[in-house]
Amino acid sequence: MKKVLVTGALGQIGSELVRELAKRYGKENIISSDIRDDLYEKVRPYSTFAIADATNALEVERLIAKYRPDTVYHLAAILSASAEERPLMAWEINMNSLVNVLESSRVHGCSVFVPSSIGAFGPTTPKENTPQVTIQRPTSIYGVTKVAGELLCDYYHYRFGIDTRGVRFPGLISNDTLPGGGTTDYAVDIYYSAIKEGKYSSFLSADTRLDMMYMPDAINAMIKIMEADPSKMKNRNAYNITAMSITPEDIAASIKKFMPEFELTYHEDHMRQAIADSWPDSIDASAAKEEWGFSPEYDLDAMTKDMLDTISKKQK
Ligand code: NAD
Ligand code: AKB
């Protein structure tokens, strides 16, 4: 049976990942960890919880030495919009925490999952059907840390034989924990606002096209890649994955199928618009499909239906 440590476990992805990992491997085999404990109730029924600052090498080493996981999902990070507001802090958190996790994993022989992002691409990357291997010159500090992270994970694999694996996530849409300061957050906020107020004002323009995916597909992908046969993986640390390439207008049209009275308006947010404009419109996920069987289930309308149903039940 696997023993798994999740860092950044109280975030948008971690809180849902911990629940699914506990279902598969048993609560007693899951350790969740974060720098804060305010949302600790979310993971408590599914794991042992430990507070640790992932930028502190000693704290990471103690955590891994104490619980002896065989797999680490390293999710502690700062997302694109928050990163752009405090670039040095983003570098410190995104890079130092990764080095600490890789170093302790090297010493204790853990496999490591590290998520990259569509943010690892930039304005000179081909925008349509972005290839798996292509130009990566991002213009956001978040993107710089994501490219550096992909390379560092490659290095630990080739130099030390560490079993590092990862995906480039698109924007993730979920209905449990709110997103933590990203450029794609509008695609989550729009559903909450639709249920609460019947309208939404988007900070990205009507035609801003980005890749997105529903959280259940993201969680399945994370577990699937860590269980896959590594001998077939030519692109270990940064597989493009996506389920849909959509604009705010597309989401609004999908919401209107279930709530015809829904209204979408727009306001400007220069920083997030510039970040979004530097990212691809659509990425090519064929390597993930061929090499480890990535296969998302939700399209836009299926996701919209589930988001609206779930959020309205929670708000009753
Ligand atoms: P999030 O912001 O919701 O959660 C990150 C968690 O990390 C938070 O709970 C935070 O408290 C914790 N954290 C921050 N600093 C820490 C530290 N020093 N030590 C320990 N914990 C710390 O982020 P998320 O959306 O869950 O993203 C997780 C990972 O997935 C990140 O690497 C992110 O870049 C990547 N990713 C996310 C998305 C998305 O749409 N959510 C898309 C692409 C990639
Ligand atoms: C963000 O917008 O920062 C994240 C991501 C796509 O990496 N959701």
UniProtKB/TrEMBL annotation:
Source superkingdom: Bacteria
Residue span(s) of domain NAD-dependent epimerase/dehydratase: 4-241
GO molecular function: L-threonine 3-dehydrogenase activity
One GO biological process term: L-threonine catabolic process
Annotated Pfam families: Epimerase (PF01370)
UniProt family annotation: Belongs to the NAD(P)-dependent epimerase/dehydratase family.
UniProt name for this protein: Nucleoside-diphosphate-sugar epimerase
